[in-house]
Amino acid sequence: FKQKTAYEILRCLVGSEVCIRDRFHMQNDTIAAIATAMSPSGIGIIRISGDDALSVIDRIYKSKNNKKKISACQSHTIHYGFIYDGDEKIDEVMVLLMKAPNTYTREDTVEIDCHGGVYVMKRVLEAVIKNGARPAEPGEFTKRAFLNGRIDLSQAESVIDVINSKNDFALKSSLSQLGGAVLGSIRQIREQLLHEIAFIESALDDPEHISLDGYPQKLRAIVDNEYVEIDGLLKTSDNGRILKEGINTVIIGKPNAGKSSLLNVLVGTDRAIVTDIAGTTRDVLEEQINIGGITLNLVDTAGIRSTEDVVEKIGVKKAMEHANGADLIIYVVDSSVALDDNDYDIINFIKDKKAVILLNKSDLASKVSADDIKKLVDKTVISVSAKESSGIDELSDTIKEMFFDGEVSFNDEIYITNIRHKKLLSDAKESLKLVMNSIDDDMPEDFYSIDLMSAYESLGLIIGESVEDDLMDEIFSKFCMGK
Asked: Is this model's pTM higher than 0.70 or not?
């Protein structure tokens, strides 16, 4: 055992651990797609990747001065010339030549920079396809990068997260994962688990030379440590989701309290209809804003009150449903009007929820104070005036304090932002819990290895060491063409 690595021993014991990349034989065909948006722009990029990428570009590209075939040129160079479809000149272009393996896909790759008209991009792509390539599927370039070992699955998923980033913090988190932050952490845990699995299997197979005396206590300490590591990653998932997707924020309050006016102030435009008539808002309005570097997914709801109006009743019901599922509730109180039973019902509703209370209409004579509210519920109370746009900075600071302990800054901490990763980490944590229970109950050692292997495999699904075809297809189908 001491002369072999844990991985080598496990391969001998359970057969070779066949990585997903070994199971999939990459097709030898060459793919192509438009990698930029299909709208008029200054430049358009057509990307080609595969074994025949160089021969494809040789057939359609002619240099203005150099008569040498472009495939014979040095890798990672840019060339100026023209794209032809047969004898017809299509466009004046710059061609970026990148030879395997030092490319995104680890295949020969060519990028054609042409003019950014929709029609000219389509014509260039048609010429590429006519001469040996096929249209790429969504995410196929990144899929090949994964299958060819260029990136792991968590890095592949972070590519789409970078593209879809809604704020600076989401972008930094996605870039961190793209750089392998999750990979490094998961791989370290897996290596430790694999070592213990190999030791147990080796000891069971050769009890004369490898003793398990006192091993359960040693294993318990190791499992405890890895359990804490996984739990630490899981604890970042809520903040990770918020950084990635934003805080689901619902604005509630009585009719005419100023909810829609507040929404308009936060959005910076007249998004909601505002009148002096109570009950103007009957349905929910949704907007996304960035406040103090945080993305808020705002939902403005119908005023909450007892009513006999059928349509308004539906609006009130929807308001309560949205509030029940919110990350944050902003309760708007008209401070110029005394509290009534509707207010007391709302206050009772938010007692056990994350909420901030805004005393709106601070520009008018006040009949409700912060002290009045705090006697009823222990929540942060802020005086604001939607009419004069005051108090918004304090609201921003309060939200930061509630969700990020006063700071929204990205450091070296790994944030789990992917719901798939969260589920698999939870599965791995549960498997390690079963190992602890087996140790505490003095179960036979082979029980340990079963649950250790289960945790090992769950973690492997995160980084793509073990993954099913349908899961991989689902992940990459979310990508745009050309990526």
From this structure: no
